Amino acid sequence: MKGLLLKNCTFLDSSAGGVYCEGGRIEKIYRGGEPAVPPDAAVVDANGGTVLPGLIDSHCHPFEYSWLKRNLDLRGTSSVVALRLRIQAGVLRAKPGEWVVGMGWDQEAFPGRKMPAKEDIDGVSPANPVAVTRVCGHVALLNSAAISRLGLGSRTGPLFERGQGGELTGIVKEGALTEVGASIPKTAEELASGLQAVESEGARLGLAALHTIVSPDGFREELAALALLATEGRLALRHRIYVPPDSLGLLGEGKLGPKLAGPRARINGVKIFADGSLGARTAALREPYSDDPSNSGLLGYGDEELAALVERVDSMGQQAIIHAIGDRAVEQAIGALSRVTGATNPRRHRIEHAGLIPRDLRSRMARHGIRAAVQPCFVTSDTWAQERLGEERIRDLYPFRSMLREGLVASGGSDCPVESLSPILGVWSAMTRGGIVPEEAIGMDEALSMYTSMAASNGFDDHPFAEGSPADLTLLDSAVAGMHPALFRKVKPFATVVDGVPVHSYGFG
Ligand SMILES: [Zn+2]
């Protein structure tokens, strides 16, 4: 394989040098004088930009994100004509025959408040099935192509609206939406192309690897898409995959993604939900919500039930990653995990989000080597957090500095599509916290390590940034050591390299 030389780089310790990759490995890291490289090697002049180990997002939902990306946002549509125009724009971007989906229209905002009908949109969508959901999510408009694709022509009953002549109007309701949703294409090919679009965006943002959580309701198709791309060598990024508890039976029988055990895409473990979210007041708290004293949130499992599930996952040799945001849920997760971790936690079981995590819980995690996967962007996005938790408790919400000082491994991630996929934004949030509990802010080196060494370790990829390691690298467009956070936020990835191959690059080829 042709080599790749990144020259005129800066390292995080401010020294200058470069990296030469060959055969998917880091062949040489040099400081000072340039090494001799084969004449046919590709050479990239980094112009002083910083070279880092490839950045890793340790918690994201790329399939959910690709679904959102392909949906048309129809909020604010003011008339049937405007609805038609927006659908036309969506059809132009789609291949012939591909589904065009969207959400957010509201006939209450249209002149005359009349429900739209299939005739209003058929003219701009002759060859593409269209399904667009009303803002409420309980009603959708289908075009004629969608009705015939789904074979709904003869359906009767209140869920399928019919006009005075008895023909379907294109408006379907409630249960019919679920039926439509379930039939909208989740073929492996379509999911694969959606995933590739997310990978391209991730590579542009400097990500070399994702900890990819597949959906509880679509895991079979999503794993098939990953397997398809993996076997054809078409995955741009590395994927460490987490499957839902419902798939444990199949996983145990070796029937789940037998092709997903390679270095590019590998099933690592099982994602479990212990509670909900602070925003919806469903995160499980030890004490009630400050802005809803009758409510302490909701646990997904009883204590014993969660412990049994964790034991099952552990005994299958899988890594358990448990979504827990409220302190009650984190406590429950620690209780379940500590039964199987001993002091060193060899399966590297993790708590995802680990939101409200006071000192007693942090020290129990440290004692059992339980890891965390956190989302620094939550700190700046959860603007209502102080209302939910009050002035005292908010000090223990996402306390990154304390977690690292007390020896916890805390990897960084986006939870995309909840937050932007950008690791640069994540690092910036961890450094600044938007001024929220600023004493828990961390420095750039530590924040970057959340997206490099700690994320790698949390996904069983702990190779040192050293010769012989897989050549996953992120090259930034400037020397970032000592840079002010406000400037760091504007840094752009100049290149992203996976297995020695640039999956994103500006200005060289
Ligand atoms: Zn998530």
Textual characterization of the structure:
The protein has 509 residues and is of the alpha/beta class. It folds into 3 domains: 4-48 and 467-505, Urease, subunit C, domain 1 (Roll); 99-183, Diaminopimelate Epimerase, Chain A, domain 1; 188-458, TIM Barrel. The chain has 18 helices and 22 strands. The strands form 4 sheets. It has an 8-stranded parallel beta sheet. It is globular, with a radius of gyration of 25 Å. The model has no long low-confidence stretch (mean pLDDT 93). It binds zinc ion (ZN). The site of zinc ion has 4 residues, from loops.
Q: Structural class of the helix and strand makeup?
A: alpha/beta
What share of the residues does DSSP label as strand, in percent?
15-25%
Ions, cofactors and other bound molecules? zinc ion
Helix content: 25-40%
Number of domains: 3
Can I get a quick summary?
Helices cover 32% and strands 23% of the residues. With 509 residues, the chain is an alpha/beta fold. Helix 6 packs across helix 7 and helix 9 packs across helix 10.
How do the strands and helices of this protein lay out in sequence?
Elements: E1 4-10, E2 16-22, E3 25-31, E4 42-45, E5 51-53, E6 55-60, H1 62-70, E7 71-73, H2 80-93, E8 100-105, H3 118-122, E9 130-134, E10 139-142, H4 144-150, E11 160-162, E12 168-173, H5 175-183, H6 188-204, E13 207-213, H7 219-231, E14 238-243, H8 248-252, E15 265-273, H9 303-315, E16 319-324, H10 327-341, E17 350-353, H11 359-367, E18 371-374, H12 377-381, H13 385-393, H14 400-405, E19 410-412, H15 423-432, H16 444-451, H17 453-458, E20 473-476, H18 485-488, E21 493-498, E22 501-505
Parallel strand pairs: 1-4, 6-13, 7-8, 8-9, 13-14, 14-15, 15-16, 16-17, 17-18, 18-19
Antiparallel strand pairs: 1-2, 2-3, 5-20, 9-10, 10-12, 11-12, 20-21, 21-22
Helix pairs in contact: 1-6, 6-7, 9-10, 15-16
The structure holds zinc ion.
